[in-house]
Amino acid sequence: MDDVTTGTSASRAPGSAAGAAVGDTELGFSVDLPHYSGPLDLLLALIRDEKVDIYDIPVARICQQFITRMHHLQLNEAAEYLEMAARLLRIKAQMLLPRPDGEEAWEDPRTELVRRLLEYQQMREVVDVLERLGEDRRNRFARTFVPASLSPVIQAPLSLSLGELLAAVDRVLRHAERPEIHDVISRPIDVDGFIEVVRAVIALRAVARFRDVVPPGAEPWEVLSGLLALLELARRGELRLAQPRPFASVEIRRELAGEAA
Amino acid sequence: MNSLAKLLEAALFASPRPIPTDELATLDTEASPAALQAALDELREHYDVDGHAVELVDAGGGWQILTRPEYTEAIEHAQMAVRPRRLSPAALETLAIVAYRQPISRAEVEEIRGVDVGSVLKSLHERGLIDVVGRSEALGRPLLYGTTDAFLEQFALRHLEELPRTDELAVALRAREQETLAEVFGTEGPR
Amino acid sequence: MNSLAKLLEAALFASPRPIPTDELATLDTEASPAALQAALDELREHYDVDGHAVELVDAGGGWQILTRPEYTEAIEHAQMAVRPRRLSPAALETLAIVAYRQPISRAEVEEIRGVDVGSVLKSLHERGLIDVVGRSEALGRPLLYGTTDAFLEQFALRHLEELPRTDELAVALRAREQETLAEVFGTEGPR
Question: What distance in Å separates residue A122's CA from the closest CA in chain B?
Answer without folding.
Answer: 29
